[in-house]
Amino acid sequence: MGRLWIKYKKYKMKFHALICARAGSKGIKNKNIRKFKKKPLISYPIKLAKSIKKIESVSVSTDSKKIANISKYYGADIPFLRSKKLSSSKANEWDVWKDFVKKKNFKGEDDVIVILPATSPFRIKEDVEKCISLYKKKKFDYVIVITKASHNPYFSMVKRNKNDLVKICMPIKKRIVRRQDAPKIYNITPVCFVVSARHIMSKKSGQQATLKSSKVGAIEIPYERSLDLDTEFDLKVANLLGN
After folding, report:
1. Strands 111-115, 142-148: parallel, antiparallel or unpaired by DSSP?
2. Summary mean pLDDT of the chain
3. Nearest-angstrom CA–CA distance, 241 and 225
4. Alpha carbon distance 184, 174 (integer Å)
């Protein structure tokens, strides 16, 4: 009897950019389409995603026809308008990702979602490409972007109790007299998230819980590229820095 050869089909990862942009932002009114360097914020992740060869499609999830039209102008697809339930300030971002995966009928490990929030205008192409490359190594369920935190809960951050007494957030037995001696702490930035459609659908809870129950990898970027626009002050600072 001759040898039995079995061919295993190797799947090819397909990367799909997703930009979530609801209309009812509170910190900055109409945040996703406010101007940064004379162009709407949402135009930047769209144009960046379209410049990356590994990304096969660029979609915007929004509840706003105005945001949809602006996004189309810059080259994004609008596969559907998001429901009101998933567009409130209480909506779970992970549920928005699930909604996108379901409606696009993405299923396996080969469909990978690259989430690019519109509120990180200083991200660069290299940041996103590094996230994709790290994910492709198949070591992690989920890849995020981090930056060194300016404050440290082991050293310079406190919590206040009912009696207005303040204590260090995370005390440890080791005596720390310099910030440099405290454990290194990083902030998660909304620059980029890379995760498969299957992993999104396998988790019932939000991003924080998912971070605890997943193998998470990260790339580190400098603080100046991590700025997240959440207030009018942030937007003013961004426009000053962008000039």
Report:
1. unpaired
2. 87
3. 11
4. 14
Residue 230: closest CA among 59, 25, 8: 25
pLDDT, tens only, 24-80: 777 788 899 999 999 999 999 999 999 999 999 999 999 999 999 999 999 999 999
Question: CA end-to-end span of the chain, whole Å?
Answer: 74
Instruction: Give CA–CA dist 217/230, Å, rounded.
Output: 25
- Specify the pairing of strand 14-20 against strand 111-115: parallel
Name, in order, each residue with C-beta under 8 angstroms of 216's C-beta and a sequence gap of 6 or more: 140, 141, 142, 143, 144
Q: Model pTM?
A: 0.87
Q: What would the 3-class secondary structure string for the chain be?
A: CCCCCCCCCCCCCEEEEEEECCCCCCCCCCHHHCEECCEECCHHHHHHHHCCCCEEEEEEEECCHHHHHHHHHCCCECCCECCCHHHCCCCCHHHHHHHHHHHHCCCCCCEEEEECCCCCCCCCHHHHHHHHHHHHCCCCCEEEEEEECCCCCCCCCEEECCCCCEEECCCCCCCCCCHHHCCCCEEEEEEEEEEEHHHHHHCCCCHHHHHHHCCEEEEECCHHHCCCCCCHHHHHHHHHHHC
For the chain, the residue count is: 243
